[in-house]
Amino acid sequence: MKPRYLVLAIACLAAFAAPNLAGAQEQRPPVSQCQAIAQSIPKVTFASFSGASPLVPAVSEGEDVKLTFLGHSTFEIDTPGGIVIATDYNGWYRPATPPDVVTMNKAHTTHYTLTPDPGIKHVLHGWSDIPGEKADINLVVGDAYIRNVPTDIRFSYGLGGAHENGNSIFIFEIAGLCIGHLGHLHYELTDTHYTEIGRLDIVMVPVDGGLTMGADSMSRVIKRLRSSLILPMHRRGPPVEAFVSMFGKDFDVAHAPDDSITVSMRTLPKKPLIYVLKGVQ
Questions:
Q1: Which CATH architecture has domain 65-276?
Q2: May I ask which residue range the UniProt record assigns to the signal sequence (predicted)?
Q3: Are 139 and 146 spatial neighbours (Cβ–Cβ below 8 Å)?
Q4: 145 and 65 in contact (C-beta within 8 Å)?
Q5: What are the domain boundaries of the chain?
Q6: What are residue 86's DSSP bridge partners?
Q7: Is the pTM of this model over 0.90?
């Protein structure tokens, strides 16, 4: 190839390569506000990113997040930007508005469905179908950044015993709030888990007293997380008071008149509050 043609070819390649490099830079992962060690965040998938900077999750002008208990361990989370999320979605407990995102866990069929409504854009499994692999979720949808911390299943109804990394703690970062759903947590978390989770302002916690963990073990997890707002769920058998009795004067307790609560960074309780929504009692 003659020198002038070689130079022209290199210039053309550079012209095509430059936009691709710029695009790659724009796909850098958002910085988690909740993780204790932000440098360890893995690659993220941007599903609908509308923020001004590629380094932070999109945040709308509003600041109120609404959480509604639908049943068992399913909560509806409504973001300021209009995104609807349903946790531990099994198809039985459904938000009034079709959800944009559903999360699932695999302990038993009250926590997932393999036949979700095809209109749901993002169906997030808390497990991997590849043996030995972990579910790895990092997703921005509108003004919500969603990630997971895998945990093991001690036993699994109808699925044959233990399942390593079979479940996930899902974390939703919305309007500056760090919101965690513990799913079907079967054992006390390790220091590594707590580091991966980071800060949780709000936590949805199973209080069945045995199908997941005993009330004393679960209370130790909650105390370690130091959340401002604790929302019991997944009550089977023992009354909620069996869980509440594990906490002392450092925690307030209130029973809600309805099934939802609206909260923001400004309105988080100053003292940790166990807030029992209608339908959980």
A1: 4-Layer Sandwich (3.60)
A2: 1-24
A3: yes
A4: no
A5: 65-276
A6: 76, 102
A7: no
